Amino acid sequence: MASTAQLNQQLRELTPWQQLAFSACLSERMLPNYLLFSHAVEWGDGNILRNSMNAVWDALRSKTTQFNHERWQEKLADQIPDPQQFDMYGVWPALDATTALDTLFCQFAEPSSPAVVEISRLSRHTVKQYIQLSEGEEVDLKNHPLMQFEFEYQGELAEWLSDRAPTQKTIAALREAFLTPLESNLGLSQEE
Fold it and tell me: In the chain, what is the straight-line distance between the N-terminal and C-terminal CA atoms, in Å?
């Protein structure tokens, strides 16, 4: 398992398009956390987040499709849950999912920004919070299977992207290899 510093360096070495694809994958994996929360508390519109991810994938697939990050940020703003208004853990992974999307939208505006490292950290933070809540603060995070899987997933994704060109075939292969079947970074699926 790579260290955080090694993973961050690996991410910085990716091209801007590869960084966007990496961030999109992690954001996609965080989306079920929001959808499950939204369904459980009957709050928010998961379709807005789903449609925004579809727009992200369309922009990554096509050299001519423009991603209107400001439009999607405006739509996302009303979908960001306020942890003060919900007395349940699920609000935190949902908040992390919306934060990741907002950061991804900003990454389209500034492709060379440190957003990819921030989204990577945010996904690991979501996993860390989940483990600590379910198993206690004293758990050995580094050796926990879910945290190990998160590091391995991110490392393998970055490695896979490192020699890929921005094509429709690359996006299709990426989604098949890393997002099928779609489970969240917490191991949850929308069917649960």
Answer: 29
Q: How far apart are CA 35 and CA 47, in angstroms?
A: 9
Radius of gyration of the chain (CA): 16
Q: How far is CA 154 from the centre of its chain?
A: 10
Q: Could you confirm whether domain 4-178 is CATH 1.20.1590.10?
A: yes
Q: What is the pLDDT of residues 110-165, one digit of tens each?
A: 987 799 999 999 999 999 999 999 999 999 999 999 999 999 999 999 999 999 99
Cα–Cα distance between 30 and 27 in angstroms, integer? 5
Amino acid identity of residue 102, one-letter, is D
Residues near 93 by beta carbon (within 8 Å), at least 6 away in sequence = 30, 33, 34, 37, 126, 129, 130, 184, 186
Q: Where are the domains of the chain?
A: 4-178
DSSP H stretches of helix in 62-90: 69-77
Task: List phi, psi (to 5°) of 186.
Answer: -100, 5
Burial of 78 (0-12, 13-18, 19+ CB in 10 A): exposed
Whole-structure pTM value: 0.96
Tokens representing 26 are 């992690």
Residue given tokens 């579809």 in the structure block: 54
174: tokens are 């990426």
